[in-house]
Amino acid sequence: MGTGCSLDANAITQGDAALKDLITAIHASPAWTNGERSAIVVVWDENDYSSLSNQVVAVVETNYGARGLKSNLPYNHFSLLKTLEAGFGLPYLNHAADANVLPMADLFSTGRRQ
Questions:
Q1: Range of the structural domain that residue 90 is part of
Q2: Any bridge partners for residue 13, and if so which?
Q3: What band does 111 get if pLDDT is binned at 50, 70 and 90?
Q4: Residue 55 located in a structural domain
Q5: Closest to 82 in 3D by CA, of 98, 64, 60, 68
Q6: How many folded domains does the chain comprise?
Q7: How far apart are CA 44 and CA 97, in angstroms?
Q8: CA-based angle 7:8:14, to the nearest 5?
Q9: What sections of 2-91 are H helices per DSSP?
Q10: Beta bridge partners of 44
Q11: Residue 113 lies in a domain
């Protein structure tokens, strides 16, 4: 465990409860239930401030399309930005415009689960 990393069980419990409340509210909203194409993206950055490669978990839930998808593509911090910018038809900012930055399109698939 590196400097700045916290394993405060109370803080983790509070974060989990807040996330549950937010997702429950989103699921009950008209934008989610009335067929609008909506998505919830949760990124968990558990950086321990060590010299090891920092890999993070990202979960994408949509109210459309396939469920239970898992990506094995190498995304980085700019991949989510590029994905959102592409979805809204916006120009890419900063390194999201780099050719090696992949949009997370496979996690927003409208196809069937394989």
A1: 9-108
A2: none
A3: low
A4: yes
A5: 98
A6: 1
A7: 24
A8: 120
A9: 9-28, 30-33, 77-87
A10: 57
A11: no
Strand 39-44 relative to strand 57-62: parallel, antiparallel, unpaired?
antiparallel
What's the pLDDT score for residue 113?
45
Whether 50 shows a pLDDT value over 90: the answer reads no
Q: Is residue 114 part of a domain?
A: no
Distances, alpha carbon 106 to alpha carbons 28, 74, 83, in Å: 26, 12, 10
Taking CA 16 as the corner, what is the angle to CA 12 and CA 20, rounded to the nearest 5 degrees? 170
CA-to-CA distance for 61 and 22, rounded, in angstroms?
13
Is residue 73 over pLDDT 80? Answer: yes
Give residue 102's pLDDT band: very low, low, confident or very high (50, 70, 90). Answer: very high
Tell me what pLDDT residue 47 has: 62
Output the six-digit token pair for 104.
């997370």
* N residues, the chain: 114
